[in-house]
Amino acid sequence: MIISGPVKFILVLVLLSQCILQCLFFCPQAFAAKDNPCRYSGLEFFGSSRISKQELEKDLALKPKATLLNVQKAMERLDTRLHARHVDANVQLVFVGAYDVFLVVDVPDSATDPSPRHLVDPHHVEVSDKPFALLNALNNRKTALAEQGRPTEETYTNGMQYFSDEPCNRIVDHLVYVVPPLKKQLMEVITSDPDPKRRVAAIQLMNWDPDFANTSYQLIAALDDADVDVRSAAAKYLFSRFKSLPNDFPFDELIDALSRQLARPNHEDRVKALFCLLSLSTIHPDLNDRIRQLDLVKVQQLAHDSIIPQVRDIAQELDAKLNQKFVPFK
C-alpha cells in the first residue's frame, strides 16, 4: 500500500497449521487501539538507498513492547516525514499470534519491481448480481461465526469449496448452481473490470466452478494484478488446489508468476508467494530446479533477514527443500 495521505493499515495474521500451510489475512476489530493487548515487536524493512532502517527507527521512536496506540501514532509521524522527503512506501501492521505486532515498511523501486498487468479493455462488466449477493451472504455468515469464536472450517471436494457450517453450505448449494453458467462473464470481470473489489469477488466465486483446473490456469494472470487484494485472492484459490491439479498443468507459468509476487514490495505478497512456493516444492519436488533458479536468492534473504517468525521459518524451510537433491521415482 503506497502512502499518499492518511496512513492506511493492512492488518495481517499469519498462521501455520500442522496439517496444511495457510495464510489468513484479517483486520482484527475485537479491541480498540488503546485496549488492544498487542505489543510492538520490531521493524521489518526492505528498501532502497533513499532511506535506511536506522533512519526509519529514529523517525518512529518506538520502544520494544510499545502499545498498538503508540505504534499507530508513530506511523502517522512516519507518514508525514516520508511525504516531506517525497518517499513512497508500503507500510503495514502485521499481527502474529495474539500479542505481537510488527511494522513492515517497503520502499518500491520502479526500476526493479515487477510491473503489474494491465486490464484488458477496461470496462464495467455487466453480470447478474445474484452470485455477488449470495457471496455477500456467505461472507456475512462466516464473519458472524468468527465473531462468536466458532469460525467455520473450509474443505474442498472435487475442487469446490465447502464448510463445516451447514448454513454456509446451504448458500454454497445455490452458488454451485448459479456460478458455472456465468463463468465467462465472471472471468471478464477478473480481467477487465476496473473495480478491484468486484475482481476479488469474482475470483472468490470461482470456488464453485467445477472445472477448477481450467480456472486455475486462467487465474495465473491475476497473480500480476495491480491490486494486492486481487493477487491475494488468486493465490489463495490456487494454493487450495495444488494437490488436485493435473500433471500437465503449466506449472512453469505458475512458478514464474509466484516468483514475481515474491519480489513485490509488499508483505502480503511475500507471505502468499512463500506459502505457495513451499507447497509446490513439497507436492512436486521436480519443480525445485525452476524455483531454485528464480527464487533462491530472495528466499535466502528472507530466511536470513526477516524478523517475522513465520516469514523467516517458511523461507528457511523452503531454502532447505531447494537445496535437497531430487531423486526421480523409478
> Which class do the helix and strand fractions yield?
alpha/beta
Strand order of the largest sheet: 1-3-4-2
Order of helices and strands: EEHHEEHEEHHHHHHHHH
Domain module count: 3
The general outline is globular
What is the count of helical runs? 12
Low-confidence stretches: 1-31
- What is the mean pLDDT? 88
Largest sheet: 4 strands, mixed
Radius of gyration: 20 Å
Q: Tell me roughly what share of residues is in helical segments.
A: 40-55%
Strand content: 5-15%
The number of strands is 6
Distance between the termini: 48 Å
Structure overview:
This protein is of the alpha/beta class and 330 residues long. It folds into three domains: 11-106, membrane protein fhac (Ubiquitin-like (UB roll)), CATH 3.10.20; 114-225, no CATH class; 250-330, no CATH class. 48% of the residues lie in helices and 10% in strands. The protein has helices at residues 53-60, 68-84, 130-147, 166-178, 183-192, 196-205, 212-219, 228-239, 251-263, 267-283, 288-305, 309-322, and strands at residues 11-13, 39-46, 90-96, 100-106, 154-157, 160-163. The strands form two sheets. It has a four-stranded mixed sheet with strand order 1-3-4-2, covered by helices on one side. A two-stranded antiparallel ribbon has the order 5-6. The longest helix is centred in the middle third of the chain and has 18 residues, at 130-147. The protein is globular and about 55 Å long. The N and C termini lie far apart (48 Å). Mean pLDDT is 88; it is low at 1-31.
